[in-house]
């Protein structure tokens, strides 16, 4: 199976960068494409696994292709279309395009061309070849709930911390963390961040042994504090005010100035003022965990059994609910049910061979020895 995790130097030497797109512009394109997939999936009532799978496909695709070659919004629709089939929540391509048209401006939707459905269907084949048909993707959501059940402490504070960490996982889809670390590492780091912001300190946990210095040592070994803070700062950078640009699918002006990152800065203990994680969780309609900590289960609506009503006989008090029997005396003979006639079949049976039977050709001997000839597949 392919290995989908990259170093930071590889993330800065992408096909888009080699095609003349700056790193800041590429990160903005990735963020806009991921946010578009989340908004489209929310509007179509898709589950969080489907949305997250589509975003991971999106990030992996642009590790092999440039944003100049493939516009981001067409790729986003294609990734969501494929993720719906993989996660068994399929949506029609025309419905995804209809929602995309309602979310995009006319200038951005013009990149879909004259036949948007054909564009998405054609790109799906390229997407499958790019991700090497590796369709199954793991996400931090399951690890987040699994780890939270092992922690001990005040239940309301623990629930608040889990809700905040869940929101951070949703927002981390707009970054390239899914290309850097495994989902269990991301889950631990964002739970650590949520614990700092919600002031929930983990003092004890189930399965603790003396060699564990922190609660995450039981789940992920050899994880350093520098790594946790690096992941946390990448998510916190999403909440920092950044200049918004409404450019097209390729940059038209000089790249924006790089914003210095304070990698060694200690984590703050107050939520960012630009966007509150708790408020974001309430506003989003993607997914949230249940109060008891279990995953949401999307169940189909229950259909009530169909009830059939039988017409009453003429002259009787309706409704006639008794068992079916012969009509009462005095009823017109024409209303009586006709007798069952077991007549002979219209066509008598004929002794014919089955439809897949082919008699041997005259003069043809046994097949030649050796392996059978290879079938011919015409080019597609």
Automatic annotation (TrEMBL):
UniProtKB keywords = Cell cycle, Cell division, Cyclin, Mitosis, Nucleus, Transcription, Transcription regulation
**Pfam families tied to this protein:** Cyclin_N, CycT2-like_C
Q: Where is the composition biased (Low complexity)?
A: 242-251
Concerning SUPFAM superfamilies, the annotation shows:
Cyclin-like
CDD domains, alphabetized: CYCLIN_CCNK_rpt1, CYCLIN_CCNK_rpt2
Question: Which residues does the UniProt record annotate as the domain Cyclin-like?
Answer: 35-129, 142-229
Q: Which domain of life is it from?
A: Eukaryota
The reply on keyword Iron is no
**UniProt xrefs under InterPro entries:** Cyclin-like_dom, Cyclin-like_sf, Cyclin/Ssn8, Cyclin_N
An example Gene Ontology cellular component term from the record? nucleus
Gene Ontology BP terms: cell division; regulation of transcription by RNA polymerase II
Q: What is its main location?
A: nucleus
Annotated region (Disordered) at 242-275, 323-380
User: Where does the record place it?
Assistant: Nucleus
MF annotations from Gene Ontology:
cyclin-dependent protein serine/threonine kinase regulator activity
Is Transcription regulation tagged as a keyword? Answer: yes
Family under the similarity heading: Belongs to the cyclin family.
User: In UniProt terms, what function does this protein have?
Assistant: Regulatory subunit of cyclin-dependent kinases that mediates activation of target kinases. Plays a role in transcriptional regulation via its role in regulating the phosphorylation of the C-terminal domain (CTD) of the large subunit of RNA polymerase II (POLR2A).
- Please state what the protein is called: Cyclin-K
What organism is listed for this UniProt entry?
Answer: Trichoplusia ni (Cabbage looper)
Provide the gene name from the record. LOC113500279
């Amino acid at each position: 199976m392919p290995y989908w995790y990259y170093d930071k130097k590889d993330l800065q030497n992408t096909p888009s960068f080699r095609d003349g797109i700056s790193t800041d512009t590429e990160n903005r394109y990735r963020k806009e494409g991921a946010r578009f997939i989340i908004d489209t999936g929310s509007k179509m009532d898709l589950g969080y696994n489907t949305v997250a799978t589509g975003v991971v496909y999106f990030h992996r695709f642009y590790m092999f292709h440039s944003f100049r070659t493939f516009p981001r919004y067409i790729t986003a629709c294609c990734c969501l279309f494929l993720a719906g089939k993989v996660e068994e929540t399929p949506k029609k391509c025309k419905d995804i395009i209809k929602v995309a048209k309602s979310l995009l401006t006319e200038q951005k939707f013009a990149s879909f061309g004259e036949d948007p459905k054909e564009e998405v269907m054609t790109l799906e084949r390229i997407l499958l070849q790019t991700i090497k048909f590796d369709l199954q993707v793991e996400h931090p959501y399951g690890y987040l709930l699994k780890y939270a059940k092992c922690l001990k402490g005040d239940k309301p504070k623990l629930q608040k911390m889990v809700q905040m960490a869940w929101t951070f996982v949703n927002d981390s889809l707009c970054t390239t963390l899914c290309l850097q670390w495994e989902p269990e590492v991301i889950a631990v780091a964002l739970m650590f961040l949520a614990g700092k912001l919600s002031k929930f300190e983990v003092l004890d946990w189930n399965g603790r042994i003396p060699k564990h210095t922190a609660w995450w040592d039981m789940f992920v070994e050899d994880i350093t504090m520098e790594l946790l803070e690096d992941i946390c700062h990448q998510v916190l950078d999403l909440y920092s005010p950044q200049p918004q640009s409404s450019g097209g699918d390729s940059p038209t002006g000089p790249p924006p100035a790089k914003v210095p990152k304070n990698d060694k800065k200690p984590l703050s203990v107050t939520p960012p003022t630009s966007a509150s994680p708790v408020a974001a969780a309430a506003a989003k309609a993607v997914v949230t965990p249940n109060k008891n900590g279990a995953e949401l289960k999307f169940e189909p609506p229950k259909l009530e059994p169909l009830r059939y009503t039988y017409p009453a006989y003429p002259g009787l008090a309706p409704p006639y609910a008794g068992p079916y029997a012969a009509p009462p005396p005095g009823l017109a003979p024409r209303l009586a049910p006709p007798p069952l006639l077991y007549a002979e079949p219209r066509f008598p049976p004929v002794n014919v061979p089955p439809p897949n039977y082919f008699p041997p050709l005259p003069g043809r001997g046994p097949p030649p020895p050796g392996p059978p000839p290879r079938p011919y597949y015409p080019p597609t």
